[in-house]
Amino acid sequence: MKKIVYILIFCFSFSLLLKAEDGSKLWLRYKSVNLSETPSFSGLKGDIELKAIKEFQLAWEEMTGSSLPIHSRLNNNTLLIGTVKDLEIRRLNLNKELKELGSEGYIIRTIERGKNSITVVASEGEKGLLYGTFHLLRLIQTGQVLSSIEISEKPLYNVRILNHWDNLNGTVERGYAGYSIWKWDELPSKVSPRYEDYARANASIGINGTVINNVNASPNILTQEYLQKVKVIANILRPFGIKVYLSVNFSSPHILGDLANSDPKDPEVQKWWNNKVKEVYQLIPDFGGFLVKANSEGQPGPQDYGRTHADGANMLADALLPYKGIVMWRAFVYNPSDQDRAKQAYNEFMPLDGQFRENVIVQVKNGPVDFQPREPFSPLFGAMKKTAIMPELQITQEYLGFSNHLVYLGTQWKEFLESDTYSMGEGSSVAKATDGTLYKQPISAIAGVANIGEDTNWTGHHFAQSNWYAFGRLAWNHNLSAEQIADEWIRMTFSNENDFVNPTKQIMLESWYAAIDYMMPLGLHHIFAWDHHYGPEPWTDIPGARADWLPRYYHKADEYGIGFDRTTEGSNAVSQYFSPLNDKFNNIESCPEDYILWFHHVPWDYEMKNGNSLWEEMSYKYDRGVKQVREFQKDWDRLESFIDNERFKHVQSKLKIQSKDAVWWKDACLLYFQTYSKMPIPYDIERPVHELEDLMKIKLDLKHHN
Ligand code: BDP
């Protein structure tokens, strides 16, 4: 049925009622929008059952308190939403442009039609329409001028996907926002309303895929029983343009299928996977594919049978190919050995370059070790020129204070995506090496490990929502600045008042640097407490534990100095980078100080660029991190009148925890490393308030759910 919808001109304002808010609406808060300056804006037309139109209706209702007026003619100030299938859209001569933008791209444009000025949201496909509508709503929410819009967009990565590390028992590995949102016990009969809320939120930022179970995968996910549950989730996500993917356990044929082994070269094993994949597609016709953690941290894999990662990935890829499914094969591999952990993934995967099927994409964490507060980019980016590579970012703050610390990661991800790999000469950023610009690849993708749980505000900390948001926005367009993303997010989530937006943005933009400073400045890494990765334990020694799971392996502090020698004299990890980076990192004089202890074992009295000794510089960095968090507290307190009390208080108390933790980190690291440096903590910084021996006794009972 064809219906044309017109909306009357609206021009009104809302008084900002600072009603208690629990954060459950995320950035999709249409109520608080002040429309007083919104010029004539109206109309809606559409003939498809579109979530896009529904979303606009919902927004309209929330903004105006009344339902969307429907008329039957195009007038001035009409909003026209439609795909190229729609006659009105076809009449606008946008088809060529729309074709170039593809089915996820869209145009939002003010078009003069005779005496009338209409606003058009148009796309080749329905997904583009959904994204375009959310974009338009974002413009409204952030108070932008709507009288002459000229926007055309398309995503820079094809697959923009969340990785949930959610277990089938409801726990979330490295999850800090409560239990999983996926209620496996209730499915398939009972459907939580949050599944649809989740889908909407993701669609609003362009996320188009989700891996709903942990990479440490239970084989049970592939049983009929669970697939029936997955089907229900897939059905809910589909209208929002989101495909479901699953993490699979490489030993599934043996464990579920009772086969003697799971050797990828065994025809019985191949047959098992072919049948299993067929079964999956019978239930979920648009199923996305598999994510695999193999031969990593005790997970089974092809190497158990003397086969390579390529053999394993290709077997699954062959099974998925007839249905256009993909395999995301993780490169997060390392084993206890004499070889520097930071070098292992590269050494393992480089020889396999060119051996992977076209529907395989190798998923590489941003850094060579493991989501540390700050790492140089993994040398695999740009290096595998005949293999599609996708970045894996960690949205959940496993190594950044869980859901207690305010750490905006837009800044971190931008630094990473813009890092120059030099793989094809200067200007070969990680982003370009993975989005299809430098290397022609059939698929491009980017993944983020989700920070979502059943907490009312979804992410534990209200500000952790900004990381979910930033991931989606950067996956869509990595050219956006961290600042722009923070700005939009604040306006949509809290308030459009500049006196609130600007200081809040400042906090966000400084927060990652502050966290690095109070946790692991100057390239220090992995000096966390055993297992739970929350607080500092640079001293830990667990008898019998793997050396590469202990902080000493990484900081190597001794009386001479501190840091991991990865130069040509040391582990030679520098050689995995392209020229001129290899030389730059190799030479202590040219190595960026942000990474100096990542690449060098530096004497305590080494003179830094500003004239401080290394020890002094380290002390000042820790101190600066602490001071910054104290400033965040002051800044936040000044903003009390701008937002609802509920969220204000929540963030305020989280900042208290962060502040205490920052002091804990500073005292622990300075007092402990001082036992090696034997130098005084510079007298112009705050004295430690803890005894080292007391700090060494702290054992937090934070469960790490495996
Ligand atoms: C580490 C986590 C661990 C994950 C692993 C992975 O500590 O829980 O299973 O990464 O990415 O950061 O596979």
What does this molecule look like?
The protein is globular, with a radius of gyration of 26 Å. It has helices spanning 51-64, 87-90, 95-101, 126-141, 194-204, 224-237, 252-255, 267-283, 309-320, 341-349, 410-418, 430-434, 465-476, 482-493, 498-519, 551-555, 581-586, 596-599, 614-638, 645-677, 692-695; strands at residues 3-5, 44-46, 79-83, 106-113, 116-123, 150-153, 159-163, 209-211, 243-248, 289-292, 326-330, 360-365, 389-394, 445-449, 561-562, 602-603. It has three domains: 31-153, 2-Layer Sandwich (Chitobiase, domain 2); 159-493, Glycosidases (TIM Barrel); 517-564 and 601-705, Alpha-Beta Complex (Alpha-d-glucuronidase, C-terminal Domain), CATH 3.90.1330. With 706 residues, the protein is of the alpha/beta class. The structure holds beta-D-glucopyranuronic acid. Beta-D-glucopyranuronic acid (BDP) is lined by residues 173-174, 215-216, 293, 297, 332, 370-371, 398.
